[in-house]
Amino acid sequence: MIGTVNQPIPLHARILQGVHEVEPSAWNRLLTAEDPPVLDWHWLAALESSGSAAPHRDWIPAHLGLFVGPELVAVCPLYLREGTEGEFVWSGPILAAFEELGRPAWPRGVSTIPGTPVPSRRFLTGPKIDRVEGIRLLAQGLVEIMGAEGLASLALHFCADDEVQTLQALGWVVRHQWQYQWRREGLTSFDGYLQGFRARRRASIRRERREVAARGVSVEFLDGEEAPDALFEEAGRLYCDTAARHGGEQPLLDPCFFGRVAASPLRDRLLLGVARDADGVCALTFNIRGADALYGRAWGAARPVPFLHFELAYYAAISWCIEHGVDRFEPGHGGEYKQSRGFPPRTVKSLHLFADQRLHGAVRAWATRERASVDRWIAEHGGPAPDGG
Questions:
Q1: Which CATH number covers residue 315?
Q2: What pLDDT, in 10s, does the model give residues 15-54?
Q3: Cross-strand pairs, 299
Q4: Contact 87/113 with Cβ under 8 angstroms?
Q5: Number of folded domains in the chain?
Q6: What domain range is 218 assigned to?
Q7: Cα(21)–Cα(303) distance, integer angstroms
Q8: Do 174 and 187 belong together in one domain?
Q9: Cβ–Cβ < 8 Å for 243, 249
Q10: C-alpha separations of 53 from 39, 50, 303, 389 in Å
Q11: pTM for the full model?
């Protein structure tokens, strides 16, 4: 049982073997208007019930909940893992350090949204508990889980700044990475967006868009409530087919995930980008809207069309954001080509704790150098998009 430090109310902890162990309203009461919808109970329920975040895919739910009586007052989404697939955090040097010390790297506890690298809070705290106190108590609970389950390490991926500040003071290791994100910054038209590029890049983007149109492809965006169910089923099929063509590995999301989210109260937050040619739907993007951001989550194409990925997943989405006054577009992790299309790198952070103190010290020293290198790279590349063909 987790004890309180400054809280006069009696708290007790419980491990949830899935979000279904609490009511949706109990979980969602801990969310704020600024939280992205991927923290919503229904998004996590769709991941877990579809098998996208399930034991057979190396995602064992073990969410840490803090309760006052029967009321959930804080929670940390947590999964026990034997690998790193689908986490989007570079782990090669850390795994090499485990091997060098002759220590097992598994099992691990990872707080993230499976297959969904959206920066956001990892410790959800409601009004019944002080925010900093809640972070400290959840961190204490994670350490107790690490000991009880014999975990080699704990990680919080793409977490919030107040979590970083509090846990770094408690000895956790901080790592920096980057994601490419677009900001509207007062833009009122796509032409205004293009003016942010040098002439050569502007011409290149216009040429890419013309080539898509010349192939008879039209693009539209449909709100979840106006999109037919069949399009969500098609999104899942195209996503999995495209993933298979570009690597052959199991896709991160099960195809039925898309329909399950669409069948939930989150449907009105969904946005489908639909590309059609003479043969029908040729590509789809699956996006979800937050209070001030659009999050691109999945892409799938029925057949290759030059530049269609850039058009549907980036240019048309940026145009939609400008038209609807959306301030930020986060298209997903990775992809250096995004920078040349107006997505500068932004810092994202993760926190790590290791059971082996020698390893923890070694990773801390390495991560300090890594942060300096990453911060320097972002400072050098975070300005106007570079020119290019």
A1: 3.40.630.30
A2: 999 999 999 999 999 999 999 999 999 999 999 999 999 9
A3: 285
A4: no
A5: 2
A6: 182-330
A7: 41
A8: no
A9: yes
A10: 14, 8, 28, 40
A11: 0.94
